[in-house]
């Protein structure tokens, strides 16, 4: 399995094969195993045919029943495969440039972001993060994407968190990602984050129809010693840019966008008004 250790599909097949092999070695039918686990024979059949997404609890239950090595420490054979599936899924769902960006972001002392359509990942609550993802993706892939978003937010818990400035287009607040309940939670989170001394969240209202307001989103990272970097993405294409001319123009653009946006106090008041519409 070494060559397939980064392929979640191959790992799911491996899980199914190991389940079938272990069950047959124990001389159990699918019905007998299902009865022991409190599920249906059809469920076991689907697991062995790779037709079902493997949950962590299923992996733990199988380890407990078969007493696989490490089962009593939640580190049995099936749980280890499940963990590998999740890790491989996370590796696959990250765009190459984004994976590099994430590493750079963790080292940044300053982050400036223009968000044209959605709440930026660093400010998303879990429900919002799930709401913008494709529900047809395997559960472990979705979990991996959400986990990456939540892990990135750990930079705000550093002893010296980065100075961050976000400019959000009004559409990011008006688009009901995840439904009204999620949007109330998301706006509450934005307001709470805005009140931190190292975070600014400014809103660009629809009424300000200028070339600056209609431009696309981007992120600028600043570091202690290294040169700034710029991250942009469109669809499934992402770029991490270090060109000094591009970065200079992006920095000027960001400053101008901030000048067009509402003030901090106005932005908080605006977000709270939008929140009322979701109640």
TrEMBL record:
Pfam families per the UniProt record, alphabetical: DUF5753, HTH_31
GO molecular function: DNA binding
HTH cro/C1-type domain segment(s): 19-71
Domain of life, source organism: Bacteria
This protein's name: Transcriptional regulator with XRE-family HTH domain
Organism encoding this protein: Actinomadura luteofluorescens
């Amino acid at each position: 399995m070494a060559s397939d250790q980064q392929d979640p599909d191959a790992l799911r097949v491996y899980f199914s094969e190991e389940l079938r092999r272990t069950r047959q070695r124990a001389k159990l039918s699918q019905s007998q195993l299902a009865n022991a686990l409190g599920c249906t024979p059809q469920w076991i059949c689907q697991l062995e045919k790779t037709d079902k997404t493997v949950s962590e609890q299923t992996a733990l239950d199988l380890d407990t029943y078969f007493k696989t090595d490490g089962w009593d420490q939640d580190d049995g054979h099936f749980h280890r495969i499940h963990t590998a599936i999740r890790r491989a899924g996370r590796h696959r769902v990250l765009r190459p440039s984004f994976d590099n960006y994430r590493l750079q972001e963790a080292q940044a002392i300053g982050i400036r972001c223009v968000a044209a359509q959605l709440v930026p990942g660093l400010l998303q609550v879990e429900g919002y993060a799930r709401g913008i993802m494709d529900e047809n993706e395997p559960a472990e892939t979705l979990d991996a994407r959400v986990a990456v978003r939540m892990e990135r937010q750990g930079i705000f818990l550093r002893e010296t968190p980065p100075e961050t400035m976000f400019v959000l287009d009004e559409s990011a607040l008006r688009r009901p990602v995840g439904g009204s309940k999620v949007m109330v939670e998301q706006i509450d989170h934005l307001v709470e984050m805005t009140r931190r001394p190292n975070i600014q969240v400014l809103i660009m209202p629809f009424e300000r129809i200028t070339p600056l307001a209609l431009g696309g989103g981007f992120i600028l990272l600043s570091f202690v010693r290294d040169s700034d970097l710029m991250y942009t993405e469109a669809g499934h294409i992402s770029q991490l840019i270090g060109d000094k001319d591009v970065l200079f123009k992006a920095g000027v653009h960001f400053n101008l966008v901030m000048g067009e946006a509402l003030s901090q106090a106005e932005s908080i008041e605006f977000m709270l008004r939008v929140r009322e519409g979701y109640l």
